[in-house]
Amino acid sequence: MNIRTATATDLSALAALLQETVLANGPQHYTPAQTEAWAAVDASSLRFHQLILGVTTYVAEADTGILGFAGIGDNGYVASTYVRHDCLHQGIGSLLMQAVLTHAQEKQIQRLYAEASEFSLGLFTKFGFHQYDTEIVDRNGVQFTRYFVERVLAESAVGLG
């Protein structure tokens, strides 16, 4: 398996991966209406373009194609974490999260934060994030609960010197 940075040529494949994963696994956590609303992804939309290319997005790839992706902004915002529906619980999410953490350390980002879904909350928790709030959001006319999570990587050096 190879971890690389996403490019514009990946947009269609990443949108398809997100959509297939939500449709395959969404019914375990969400209503049919929520699953359908979440799976409504347009690879050519500005919103999806920003989700992938507006941050640094890491792609896990093997001979069988793209296995997952995770994105992080330079402000510490973890924008995405998705693993292909037939590759869950195989360590791919952990490899991608490690790439995100390495990126944060290299950029000296002190705090990571995200809005986790029912899908991703366990992965964030596994990597030391803690939940500090929830919110209800509307996506395509359907309401979802999101979980605000964060992880502090380094404390500031206040009072040293």
From TrEMBL:
One Pfam family of this chain: Acetyltransf_10
Chain ranges of the N-acetyltransferase domain: 1-155
Keyword Lipid metabolism applies: no
Keyword Transport found: no
Keywords: Transferase
GO MF annotations in UniProt: acyltransferase activity, transferring groups other than amino-acyl groups
Name of this protein: GNAT family N-acetyltransferase
Species per Swiss-Prot/TrEMBL record: Shackletoniella antarctica
